[in-house]
Amino acid sequence: MEAAAPSEDGRRQDRLWSAWMAAGQDGDHAAYARLLREILPFLRVLVRRRCREADRCEDIVQDVLLTLHRVRHTYDPARPFTPWLAAICDRRSIDALRRRVRLAAHETADERAFETFADPAANKELDAGDAAQALAALVAQLPPAQREALELVKVKEMSLLEASRVSGQSVGALKVSVHRAIKALRQRVGAPE
Amino acid sequence: MKIDTDALIEQLTASAAPVRRLAPPMLRALLWLAGIGLVCGALILRLSNLTVFADRASDPRMALELVATLATGVAGVIAAFHLSLPDRSRAWALLPLPFALAWMGLSGLGCYRDWAEQTRNGWRLGESSSCFVFLLAAGVPMALLLLLSLRRARPLQPRLVAAVGAVGVAALSALALQFFHPFDVTLMDLGAHLAALLILIGVFAVSGRISLAGRA
């Protein structure tokens, strides 16, 4: 696995990890927790050799931890720990890489798929936002008198008298402006009269 | 679903019950072989005609073929047990290869000799179908027993482990067959043997991939 011969530090570390693993196999939770935390930097370095994206690397590291836990009875404390761990890490990294290649061959990224749903009712909020923008653009194109009448009477829900006071238009003129504005909007969105 | 690595470590630690370590792979393989040897030996002693077998085994080519078949079986099983562990070299997969080549070569040589000397008999069909059934009947239970034993290691490369184990089991079935096979293999026999062995290896490799590949 590792081509270079381990240094004295490496050997000392391996003996420590091996002892913790053996204790973990015997049910020592503290030693096992310490081992899993201590090997994390080592695993992250190994995984990064095969994986560029940090997020995906961490997924693989977690997969390695899960696998280590599942096969922990296969570790023989008479043998070095690091090659055992590195072999699991290597295997899981390759599996992740293969899975990714397989997915890439069969799947296409579609960001919109995450925003819209098969059930039209589920898209109501998104559609409402789009519709409000479109409507605001249409209202902006109305003649100023019609636009003002529409905003006061329909959007701000003022009475005709209040709107008349605010705008200075007569009640009759307001009625006509609102009616014409709605008719114009209907025509522009293609709705039936 | 994303989970924080620290939280995962806490979960794993909390569920880390004491485990029974696996015995060394060589020991496990030899125990498995001893068990199979005992059962097969008892059945052979009871059911086969050992005089006919001894007569056939006196031919050096046949004796060598038997040794090569046994060696392929033993090597395949030993290799599968080693490969089932994470830190053993994948080169173990090559262990049965030289023996398997010798077995195939010697078996083919016997077949060729038979064909050259008794051309008409070389094409007989009579025994081939029963050999085919025998190989599957002996091989399938053996394969299942091997899968059960290998499963304990939860191999990370189940396909490779199963395929190498299947070569071992196929060779052991072929060896057992020799005790009930009162003649050298003919061309048709060889075809039937090969078909049965390939079926065995294929089924074992596929089922092994599924049954050995348990995920956390």
Number of domains of chain B: 1
End-to-end Cα distance of chain B, whole Å, is 15 Å
| Biggest sheet details of chain B | none
- Number of helices, where a helix is a run of at least 4 consecutive DSSP H or I residues of chain A: 8
In helices, the fraction of residues of chain A equals over 70%
β-strand number of chain B = 0
Mean pLDDT of chain B: 84
**Broad structural category of chain B:** mainly alpha
| CATH architecture heading of the largest domain in chain A | Orthogonal Bundle
Oligomer: heterodimer
Outline the structure in words.
The complex is a heterodimer of chains A (about 190) and B (about 220). Chain A has two domains: about 10-105, Orthogonal Bundle (Rna Polymerase Sigma Factor, Chain: A); about 120-190, Arc Repressor Mutant, subunit A (Orthogonal Bundle). Helices cover about 70% and strands about 0% of the residues of chain A. In chain A, α2 crosses α3 (about 55-70). Chain A has eight helices and no strands. Chain A has helices at about 10-25, 30-50, 55-70, 80-105, 125-140, 145-155, 160-165, 170-190. Chain A has about 190 residues and is mainly α. With about 220 residues, chain B is an all-alpha fold. Chain B has one domain. Chain B is about 75% helix and about 0% strand. Chain B is built from nine helices and no strands. Chain B has helices spanning about 5-15, 25-45, 50-55, 60-85, 95-115, 120, 130-150, 160-180, 185-210. The longest helix of chain B has 26 residues, at about 185-210. The interface of A and B includes residues 24, 25, 37, 40 and 91 of A.
